[in-house]
Amino acid sequence: MPRPRSTPSQIGVDRSVHRSRIRATTGTRGAPLDACMSELLGRANGLCKGKGGSMHLTSVEHRALGSYAIVGAHLPIACGTAWSARVRGTDQVTACHFGDGATNIGAFHEALNLAAIWKLPAVFVCENNGYAESTPVSYHCSASDIANRAGAYEIPGIVVDGLDVFAVYEAAGEAVARARRGEGPTLIEAKTYRYYGHFEGDTILYRTKEELDAYRQRDPIGVLRRYILEHAIASEQELDAINDRVQARLAQRLTECPHGASSPVSGRL
Question: Mean pLDDT, the chain, as a whole number?
Answer without folding.
Answer: 86
